[in-house]
Amino acid sequence: MSFSDAFSRVPRFLRSFYFLTGLGFLVWMFVFDANDFVKQYDMYAKWQELRTDKEYYLREIDKVKKDRAELLSSPELLEKFAREKYIMKRPGEDVFVLVAPEKEE
């Protein structure tokens, strides 16, 4: 069986110039191109991750805005927040910070 016999057994539309050119183009785009499927998938996964990060930060911004509004509305809450978070004190006052001992294994 020669090459021409094997070539003649292939259906005519598969031997077409347009089919072979299109097949070559698809192989190039899916495998060798700079934006192939693997990179497209990675970019989509990164986009999804960034969307979830954005939602998280938007929730955090809302929470901080709410806390800020509460703190600015009341001087007592502002003082309590400063004392608890930043260990601030009044003049002449001593502050003792209690740290829980580490558990030994």
Q: What's the short story on this structure?
A:
It comes from Hymenobacter wooponensis. This protein is 69% helix and 0% strand.
Describe the structure.
The protein has helices at 3-9, 17-32, 37-73, 75-86. It contains four helices and no strands. By secondary structure, the chain is mainly α. The chain folds into two domains: 1-33; 34-88. Helix 3 packs across helix 4. It is rod-shaped. The model has no long low-confidence stretch (mean pLDDT 85).
Largest sheet: none
What is the typical, i.e. mean, pLDDT?
85
The tally of domains stands at 2
Spatial shape: rod-shaped
Q: What is the overall number of helices?
A: 4
Strand runs, count: 0
| Poorly predicted tracts of residues | none
Please state the structural category: mainly alpha
Key terms:
2 domains
List the helices and strands and how they pair.
Layout: H1 3-9, H2 17-32, H3 37-73, H4 75-86
Helix pairs in contact: 3-4
